Amino acid sequence: MSAAVLIATKDLKLRIRDRSFIILGIVAPLSLAVIFNLVFGNAFDAGTGIGLELGVVDLDQSESSRGLSQLLEAQDDEFLTLTSFDSVAMAEDAIGKDEIKAFFLFEEDFSQSLTSNQAATIFVVGDIDAPTTTQIAAGFAESYGTSLDAVRIAVLTIVQLTASPPAGNPLSAAFSYEFTDVEAATRQLDGNTYFAAAMGVFFLFFTVQFGVSGLLEEGRLGTLDRLMVAPIKKSSVIGGKAILSFALGIISMGVMVVVTSILMGAVWGAPLGVTLLVVAGVLSAVGIMGLVASVVKTPEGAGNLGAIIAVVLGMLGGVFFPIGQGDDLLSKLTFLTPHAWFMRGLGDLADDAPWTAALPATGAIMVFAVVCGAIAWVFVRRSLSR
Amino acid sequence: MVDILTATDLVKRFGDLTAVNGVSFSIADGETFGLLGPNGAGKTTAISMISGLLESDAGTVTVAGDSVGTSSTKAKAHIGLVPQELAIYPDLTGEENLHFFGRLYGMGGDDLGTRVDEVLDIVGLSERRHDFTKEYSGGMKRRLNIGIGLLHKPRLLILDEPTVGVDPQSRNAILESVESLSDEGMAVLYTTHYMEEAERLCDRVAIIDEGKIKAEGTRRELVSLVGEKDKIAIVGSGSLGASVEPVSQLSGISEASSSEHRLDVLADDASSVLPSLLMAVTDSGGVITGVEVIEPNLEAVFLHLTGKALRD
Question: Could you tell me the pTM of the whole model?
Answer without folding.
Answer: 0.71
